[in-house]
Amino acid sequence: MKRGKHVRKEAIALRYDEKKDSAPRVVAKGKGKVAETILEKAEKHGVPVKEDSALTELLGELDFNQTIPEDLYQAVAEVFAFIYNMDREFEKRKD
């Protein structure tokens, strides 16, 4: 019997404050149990989660508190647009 390949969970948390930051920055990252904790905290605080393994791999190369490089702006902008749309949908459902 073949076993499926086990994929270790990885999570990256970004923060962007347009008044303080020049670009989004990595505020948490980890694999395995640390990733699970990041995802649990996101859920607890109502922070939308976007799964994108390719982007996670690229962002995983960055150091904690490092701003994202310019070549990732477009990909990260898509994530922030996703979160914005999720927030809008949530607000509509509350009314």
From TrEMBL:
Keywords: Cell projection, Cilium, Flagellum
GO biological process: protein secretion
Membrane-traversing stretches: none
Keyword Repeat among UniProt keywords: no
The protein, known as: Flagellar biosynthesis protein
Matching Pfam families: Bac_export_2
InterPro entries found in the cross-reference section: T3SS_substrate_exporter, T3SS_substrate_exporter_C
Superkingdom of the organism of origin: Bacteria
Keyword rRNA-binding: no
The organism of origin for this protein: Melghiribacillus thermohalophilus
Alphabetized PANTHER family for the sequence: FLAGELLAR BIOSYNTHETIC PROTEIN FLHB
GO cellular component: plasma membrane
